[in-house]
Amino acid sequence: MEVSFSSWKMQKICNSPKEMQAKYGPRMARILQQRLSELTAADTLDDVRQLPAARCHELSGARKGQLAVDLVHPKRLIFRADHDPVPAKPDGGLDWTKVTRVLVIEVVDYHGR
Q1: Three-state SS at 101
Q2: What's the Cα-to-Cα distance from 107 to each of 43, 85, 104, rounded to whole Å?
Q3: Contact 55, 71 (CB under 8 A)
Q4: 2-108 CATH pick, 3.30.2310.20, 1.20.1260.10, 3.30.930.10, 1.10.760.10
Q5: What are the residues facing 58 on neighbouring strands?
Q6: pLDDT in tens, 80-96
Q7: pLDDT at residue 112 greater than cutoff 80
Q8: Three-class SS of residue 59?
Q9: What does pTM read for this prediction?
Q10: Cβ–Cβ under 8 Å, residues 29 and 17
Q11: If both were cysteines, with which of 40, 72, 82, 109 could 101 make a disulfide (CB 3.0 to 4.6 Å apart)?
């Protein structure tokens, strides 16, 4: 899958193990790097959905249209399908099997927001 980033700063952090460790610490950096590798290796978003440790899931409310994968609790890697239009099933839901590009937005703890 093609992975791009919402900002130059996020791209710089995610493309450098040294930057990741400086920003998030060694454990978080290792898991973040693993999640990014999983996204890149996947053919579609549905492949990532099958990885139990990643726990890829759609968000709701103010974050509708975004997805998350688990990092070090409570942090999540937030991204969205990078298609125009976003692939949808007949019922309007996201068609995970057709998402081949994602845009990484941020690493955040969105709980309690």
Answers
A1: strand
A2: 23, 25, 9
A3: no
A4: 3.30.2310.20
A5: 67
A6: 999 999 999 999 899 99
A7: no
A8: coil
A9: 0.94
A10: yes
A11: 82
